[in-house]
Amino acid sequence: xxxxxxxxxxxxxxxxxxxxxxxxxxxxxxxxxxxxxxxxxxxxxxxxxxxxxxxxxxxxxxxxxxxxxxxxxxxxxxxxxxxxxxxxxxxxxxxxxxxxxxxxxxxxxxxxxxxxxxxxxxxxxxxxxxxxxxxxxxxxxxxxxxxxxxxxxxxxxxxxxxxxxxxxxxxxxxxxxxxxxxxxxxxxxxxxxxxxxxxxxxxxxxxxxxxxxxxxxxxxxxxxxxxxxxxxxxxxxxxxxxxxxxxxxxxxxxxxxxxxxxxxxxxxxxxxxxxxxxxxxxxxxxxxxxxxxxxxxxxxxxxxxxxxxxxxxxxxxxxxxxxxxxxxxxxxxxxxxxxxxxxxxxxxxxxxxxxxxxxxxxxxxxxxxxxxxxxxxxxxxxxxxxxxxxxxxxxxxxxxxxxxxxxxxxxxxxxxxxxxxxxxxxxxxxxxxxxxxxxxxxxxxxxxxxxxxxxxxxxxxxxxxxxxxxxxxxxxxxxxxx
Length: 482
Known about the structure:
Helix content: 25-40%
Distance between the termini: 46 Å
Low-confidence stretches: none
CATH topology of the largest domain: Rossmann fold
Shape: globular
Mean pLDDT: 92
CATH superfamily of the largest domain: ANL, N-terminal domain
Structural class: alpha/beta
Largest sheet: 9 strands, mixed
CATH architecture of the largest domain: 3-Layer(aba) Sandwich
Number of domains: 2
């Protein structure tokens, strides 16, 4: 399997003067990109404390220098660790203690005990180097990404060059993007989704347009128009923000956009149907996956309109099974843990034995779901989030969905808490955000749920909150609500 770096070099040979990436007023052609990456790789080797196999932390922003430093680290035999630019000190300290990096790039001063701190300006000033490097072996570790820690402490996820190359191939095969496409990326590239889009585009020979965020809607639309963008990606929270700031103006580009990829957080069947109606000729896709197993299932809103409540079917070259607590595969229709096998799957977490995370060759996702007879995957809950009400399991997402249908509810998230009466072990607690001005009581919500849910699933503990805590990509942080 050819690594991503090999593919970028091949694209530079075929398309040397084609813009590979643009950020603001700056750009790099494929020839320039490879020469800058080669320069970064050689620079790393001159630094004190450098040795192959060590980690380097990168503040993953939308500057071109991030790409030079990221891919340069790979070619220098280093392990790249992309992190959000605003990573909090506690998380940063946790990562440092776990990996003992020899350097960091782009972070503010104050990382106590750090060997070396570099600025992005250093990578901007390096002279270009024309070289064909020794490309890394597919089995070598390329990156370590850290999970968001929605159900516990963040876990370090090593990804090999083979994992990364396989994921990019599988994603491109499903989305059907080509080197003729121009993609606009406003997602953060410190997370698996956004970073994966960078890899997919550069592996394909596309042009990638980097935008800081979705907040500047005028600039977003201007770039879509001026750069003749044909591909776009977003999370449900991004779509909600765009609709809040600009209505459905994104649909003005329906005839121009060839594909849209969504992911990282739940999206209702009604929202999927609505987006498909706004983009009648666009390939509107959504994935299910994890940092540990990127984009393991896909769906397309037009093609899969009969199963919009699902998260799609297994991606190309991916095998998904549902297992019981002993690791035995369950038949279609039965709920259990979603387990995944494929070349894109991590070999295991840092400092965690594999017997806790694998059933044979299948990675245990920690998600509960079922497969239909025709192969559609239906996601129910996180194993750690399941609420045990007197021995009966409740998926909090199911209760969330029904509460959100109650007029006057703006948002909500349910969690399990100890039964105040000490009878059932756990009960459902609902944390609800009310629409401004809504005259709504908890009794009103419970009454509305009585015809939609079994009695044991209806919350018995309630709380009004101002906002549901979520990660940058829109994942609900239920642990903060307990």
